[in-house]
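Model: Ready when you are.
Researcher: Fold this.
Model:
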Amino acid sequence: MVFGAITGRDPRSLGQSECAGLELPLSTAQAAALQQVAFDELASHGTVKPAPLRPSAPGAPMNCPRWR
């Protein structure tokens, strides 16, 4: 929610393997579900618009410095 509210960007554009989800720790499915909930809420208020999504490939490496 905070990401979308501040940037105006679709939270789902972060992808299911983004670093914050790993820090909590969330599964990729949980991260994707929470991003969808955040998008739905922000979109219902006109705060964000859908962005083209790039799904992460299964087993794709994480792009988080702490996890390298």
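Researcher: Now this one.
Model:
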Amino acid sequence: MTKAWMLCAVLAMSAAIWSQTTPPAKAPVTPAAKHAPAAKTDAEFAAYKAVAQLPDPAAMEKGADDFAVKFPDSDLKGLLYKTVMRTYQGKNDAEKTEQMGRKVLALDGDDPEALVMVAEILAERTRDTDLDKAQRYDEAMKLAQHATQTVDTDSGIPSGTPEDKAAAYKGLLLSNAYSVVGTLEFKQDNFAAAETNLRKSMDAFPQQPDPTVVLRLALSLDKQGKYPEALKFAEQAVTLNQEGSGAGKIARQERDRLVLLVGPAKPAEKK
């Protein structure tokens, strides 16, 4: 999981908090953009809150399943499963995170957060030795690309959310979607396409560059012979990735290799 997902999940929790504190109301018919879901009855709302406030993800998952049986027509089912998904993600349980993400998508195939979450797990956890590697990569690509098309229309951001927080949430979703696409292109040696999408990822959320994205962009540029620019991003990757980590070691090896090729990166000129 990328570090950006942690902030993404925090921002996204505004939707869950809104549903816990807002009285039941019916959503508008055929809205231009998807609105946050709302309870239809007080009983449904109380049951939703009881499950959403459970601290244990396994208990929350069971509660969500029971809620879905008791309230089969509830608009809050997907929101509950999304809350469980985020909770498992916070516990670094990728398998359960993917399962809950797929439950969200079974209810709403356009949900950008679930689309990106499942796509990211597929992209990062697929091994070269997996017999279904091609199918997993193909699914991840389709999910991530679809997310780039639904961020603006299907994020379900509650009305009244401050504009800067709504923009940050959408920016993070878009950044992570392009990160998945870029990662998949990188892993399949399509380095020009990887560069394009990794740049889009950084541009979508420039206030918090993802260390893995920066490193993969440096490597993608290197593979294309764009050594001076590759060095610039390798230097940035070194500052973002902890020295003792696997990514940190790769970043430092990449920087040192590029320095031998083109010399040290020149400091930015003062204006």
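Researcher: Key takeaway?
Model: The CA atoms of residues 122 and 140 lie 6 Å apart.
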